[in-house]
Structures are given as structure tokens and as C-alpha cells.
Write a structure and sequence with these properties.
- The two termini are 20 Å apart.
- The chain has 5 helices and 9 strands, in the order H-E-E-E-E-E-E-H-H-H-H-E-E-E.
- By secondary structure, the protein is of the alpha+beta class.
- Helices cover 24% and strands 20% of the residues.
- It is globular.
- The chain has a 7-stranded mixed beta sheet, covered by helices on one side.
- The chain has helices at residues 8-14, 88-97, 99-106, 110-120, 132-146, and strands at residues 19-23, 38-42, 56-61, 67-71, 76-78, 81-84, 151-155, 164-167, 173-176.
- The model is unreliable at 1-14, 178-195 and 197-209 (pLDDT under 50).
- Helix 2 packs across helix 3 and helix 2 packs across helix 5.
- Strand 5 (76-78) and strand 6 (81-84) form a beta hairpin.
């Protein structure tokens, strides 16, 4: 049942979605091992990332997950400019290290942000990130994990289609083949990842583990 319709009351009670979706680029598969976590959106909305053109994957979420919930409605200033939409990672970073420290970090050049993170987390290849905002999102994911959070749930009151659920702990999600993909997308699933909903018929959602 779509979260955005008859299940709205249940979602509000539990504070985060029970099923989430991930749209990938063509030929790509979801990875739950990234420092920033796996960014997803609730199943019951049309994903704003459909233009990526790849497969759609669904996951059920453990209702007992330890989730950091934040309000990401307000626009912010980052290296990308003023009045930028607030991602779950940046919103979480503000919650975890404070607004002033987050603003300081987001004002850094990519070079300086990379150097600072290399000192804190030398095991991560910080050069692979596109810019300071992406580095900040990975920084938030690392801190959130260290503090025991399984996921980040960021809500945008003005544009709920941009609500984000970031999976930080792969044990709180279960792949499911249930759901309806907006347009059938051909292609076989990659090994080790949930089968795309376009490639299978709907099946009952398994219980979280």
C-alpha cells in the first residue's frame, strides 16, 4: 500500500517509512557500503530521480531501527551556492556537529575539505567525491554510524517528494520484489543485489530481519 495514501497515519506514528526505493543509473547496482550511506526515497511517492534511467530497487525497513530524524525543509548555503536544497547528509551534519561548524565546513574548498577528512578518516578515498557538499554528506554518514544510528530520515515539508531515507546499516533493510515500477525497464539484476521490480512480478513483502 503506498505510504503517501492510506498508510500516512502509520508512517507518522512510526516517524519513518516502512518501504523505500532506490533508482540507479543504467548498469549500476545499489551499494550499502558507502560512507555516506544509501540514499533512498519513500516507496509511495514518484521518485525525483527517475530521470537517472536505471533500475528501481525496493527495501523494507526494520521498524526498530535507530533513526536520526531531521527537518530538511529550509534552504541552505553550500559550495554550490545560496538557497540550495538541504540534503539528508547536510541536515544530519548540522544536527551532529552544530550549525556553525557545518557552515564552516561547507565553506571550504574541495581541496581543504579533502585534507581535513583525510586526517580524521585516512581509510577513505576522499578524492573520489565530487565536491565539498558530497564530502560533508559522507562525513555525516561516518559520524552518525559512530553514534549508533542505523539511518537518517530527512523530511521536506514543502516538497515531500524530496524526503530522503539514508540507510547506514545494511541489517535494517530487507530487499523486496514488491512494488510497481513507473515504466518497465529491461535488464537482469546484478549478483548480490535485490532483483529490480521491473524484472519480477509483485510478491508479498518479507518481514524485516
Amino acid at each position: 500500500v503506498p505510504e503517501s495514501m492510506s498508510s500516512v497515519g502509520a508512517v507518522q506514528a512510526r516517524k519513518f517509512p516502512s518501504t523505500v526505493q532506490r533508482i540507479e543509473e543504467p548498469g549500476m547496482s545499489p551499494s550499502l557500503d558507502k560512507p555516506q550511506g544509501l540514499y533512498t526515497t519513500p516507496e509511495g511517492v514518484v521518485s525525483p530521480h527517475l530521470d537517472l534511467g536505471g533500475e528501481r530497487y525496493l527495501y523494507t525497513v526494520d521498524p526498530n531501527a535507530n533513526v536520526l530524524s531531521i527537518d530538511a525543509t529550509d534552504f541552505i548555503t553550500t559550495n554550490r551556492g545560496r538557497y540550495v536544497g538541504q540534503s539528508a547528509g547536510v541536515g544530519a551534519l548540522k544536527n551532529l556537529i552544530g550549525e556553525d561548524e557545518t557552515a564552516r565546513f561547507l565553506a571550504l574548498s574541495k581541496r581543504d575539505a579533502t585534507a581535513e577528512m583525510a586526517q580524521k578518516y585516512p581509510d577513505i578515498d576522499w578524492e573520489r567525491y565530487f565536491d565539498t557538499q558530497e564530502i560533508a554528506e559522507a562525513y555525516a554518514g561516518k559520524i552518525a554510524k559512530e553514534r549508533g544510528y542505523d539511518a537518517i530520515w530527512a523530511t521536506d515539508l514543502n516538497a515531500p517528494e524530496f524526503n530522503e531515507f539514508v540507510v547506514l546499516n545494511n541489517r535494517i533493510v530487507t530487499p523486496t520484489t514488491s512494488g510497481v515500477v513507473p515504466e518497465p525497464i529491461p535488464g537482469a539484476p546484478a549478483a548480490g543485489v535485490p532483483e529490480p521490480v521491473s524484472a519480477v512480478e509483485a510478491a508479498p513483502i518479507p518481514a524485516p530481519v
